[in-house]
Amino acid sequence: MNTALSPSTAQSHPYARFGTPSLLARVAGAAGLCAALLCGCTDLSTPAYRRPDMPAKESWAHTRGAVSAAATVDPQWWKAFDDPYLNTLIDKAISANVDIKILAARIGVAGAQIGEVQAGQLPTVDAGAGIDYEKSTGVGLTKTYDVATQVNWDIDIWGKVEKSVQAQKAEFHASEADWRAGWLTLVANVATTYFQILQFDDQIKEEQQTLDKNKQILTIYQQMYANGVAPKTEVLRQSAEINGLVNELLELHRERDTAENALATLIGVPAGEFKMPVGQLRQRVKFPDVPMGLPAQLLGRRPDVVAAQYRILESYDEVGSARLAQLPTISLTGRAGTAAFSLSDLFKVFTLSFMPSIDLPMFDPGVHAHIKTTEAQSKVAEEQYRQAVFTAFEEVENALVNLDAHKKQRVELLEQNERLRTVAAQVEAQLKEGLVSQLEVLESERSLASAELSLLANHEQILSDTVTLYKAMGGGWTDVEVANVASGSAAPAAPAR
């Protein structure tokens, strides 16, 4: 902005007249005429929001229990596992996890950007003051003092800025949904990692017992070999078996340590600084039942699906803003200032000016190209929504398939364990009667231990499947309705912690 004034200008025009009402009327009339012409031959509307068409899905294909539209998931669904230590870990993660803080900060950015866009409706004021030194040949040094202010205001007659504000509000709500999705993923990751660590603890205990039994078997083989009743190959074979068990134990300890480091990062603690107490999975965590809602309810509960809907709404508002950009822009510019050769005369004379102007962008090819760009982006947003919905349905169905299969496998594994336990007890009784050797007892116990490990792995799979199903169903978030509203949809409340 050039606000500098000369003393001669200020003195010759003590105060300039504002633009005449007739001039302002002409500008407004020209804007109205252009707008009328555009409205007659150009689409200036904003697309009305509605969910993109999707193939109908009335029910889940692999659910075993009752499905009801009234079924709801507790926002604190992890408490259904009835493990106080898990509850503590999740509380720590929610308050300290860095990824969640990043997503929360992005909500703050989106909120600040709403104010930034809204500022486009307000006048801008520039002010300045200065001293000008000038030296000409044959003339002494001249000093000029000046103070000037300029006000510019682009009047948002057509709602161009407001439409951009609506688009930014939609992005704000989408950022909130992104935070919800991250929050849900965090809770699920904490739970599954915790279950894995407990499984490792049980596996380490079982493997150590198996190793001890195999060492006893090795001792028996060594005695038999020394007595000449067993070949050396049996001793070598059993020694190799022990080598394999030791290797498995080392691997289990490694996997537990890395899982513990992952859990530390999830709860906001430096890796290596967090140590989780040894526990037993089957004794500490119980199986909960997941309330199943209808597939249609998933569209309002899944945070990623809700975010995709808001981004469609945002893209529609951007289309509307781009279309409105074809309309004329009326700007008002006012200037006021004073200048003098001495400070004592600086505020004796003022110059004032007022100038309305009109910008006609309807012939700008860049404006029309931007409309096509926003319309294409809205198509992308619609397809991304469809992709999010298909992914949601797939994740729920897969979780149901896995949960159902692992529960059926659990029935078989329980029967297997019961039968092997009966065999082990009978072999133990036969040992007391001298019908079998200690070697056969240890072999039966080793088979039982292997079956116990399979049952333990199945237990962890069912728990992880349950977590995955909770997450796939939206994790207890309330339904969110996305629609065209001037003030933006109300932000859904965060779950109680």
Automatic annotation (TrEMBL):
Listed Pfam families: OEP
Q: According to Swiss-Prot or TrEMBL, what is its membrane topology?
A: Lipid-anchor
Keyword match Phosphoprotein: no
**Which superkingdom is the protein from?**
Bacteria
Please tell me where this protein is predominantly located. Answer: membrane
Q: Which SUPFAM superfamilies match?
A: Outer membrane efflux proteins (OEP) (SSF56954)
Cellular compartments annotated? Cell membrane
- CC per GO annotation: plasma membrane
Q: Which UniProt keywords apply?
A: Coiled coil, Lipoprotein, Membrane, Palmitate, Transmembrane, Transmembrane beta strand
Gene Ontology terms for molecular function: efflux transmembrane transporter activity
Record-linked InterPro entries: MdtP/NodT-like, OMP_efflux
Q: Which residues form a coiled coil?
A: 396-430
The Swiss-Prot or TrEMBL record describes its family as follows: Belongs to the outer membrane factor (OMF) (TC 1.B.17) family.
Q: Which PANTHER family match?
A: OUTER MEMBRANE CATION EFFLUX PROTEIN, PROTEIN CYAE
- Protein name per its UniProtKB record: Efflux transporter outer membrane subunit
Q: What high-level taxonomic lineage is stated for the organism? A: Bacteria, Pseudomonadati, Pseudomonadota, Betaproteobacteria, Burkholderiales
